[in-house]
Amino acid sequence: MADSLKERLLRNFKENERGCWVWQLAIGSHGYGVMNWRGKSQTVHRLVWLCFRGEIPENLFVCHTCDNRACFNPDHLFLGTQKDNMDDAVRKGRQAKGARQGTHTHPESRATGEKHGTTTHPGCCARKLNEDDVREIRYLDVEGFPRKAIAEKFNVTKSMISTILTGKTWKHVK
């Protein structure tokens, strides 16, 4: 006879010193325990919530009080919105915010201009431009050329020209 979900879950953990029930089988790349249930790979902490607590309302997450993604102790889980989860992370110092955030403390790590990921997407206007083009666009604007004519010259949209000239994009180019 097939094991119930609860039986399968309860025979595959080790309790640690903090009371976490640490999943002993597959761990996904996201750090959560995973198992196949009803023909689908699912996260263990969500399955545990269903077994021990009941349905998970739409748009709610099953969050960890212990911050251990491999844990599925029902006493370490709570329901919350994405905002609740992010606020919890900030409150516990797991998520940098404001001036402590990575692109503020290490601005060199932020991809800009030609190195920005979106510049490689097909159809993206930014991929057609390089830093020399941006300098020329700014020069042509100062010389009084219409933005529509500049856009046509570089085969980009007029809105792309506007974002460059207003400093929303390519702001690192002087």
Write the layout of secondary structure elements.
Layout: H1 5-10, E1 13-15, E2 21-23, E3 34-37, E4 40-43, H2 44-52, E5 61-64, E6 77-80, H3 82-91, H4 102-105, H5 131-142, H6 147-154, H7 158-165
Antiparallel strand pairs: 1-2, 3-4, 5-6
Quick overview of this protein structure:
Helix content is 33%, strand content 13%.
Low-confidence stretches: 116-126
Terminal CA distance reads: 71 Å
- Fraction of residues in H or I helices: 25-40%
Structural class: alpha+beta
* Rg on CA atoms, Å: 25 Å
List the helices and strands in order. Answer: HEEEEHEEHHHHH
The tally of beta strands, per DSSP, is: 6
Q: Which word captures the global form?
A: elongated
- List the strand order in the largest sheet: 1-2
Helices, by number, come to 7
Mean pLDDT: 82
Largest sheet: 2 strands, antiparallel
Q: Tell me what portion of residues adopts beta-strand conformation.
A: 5-15%
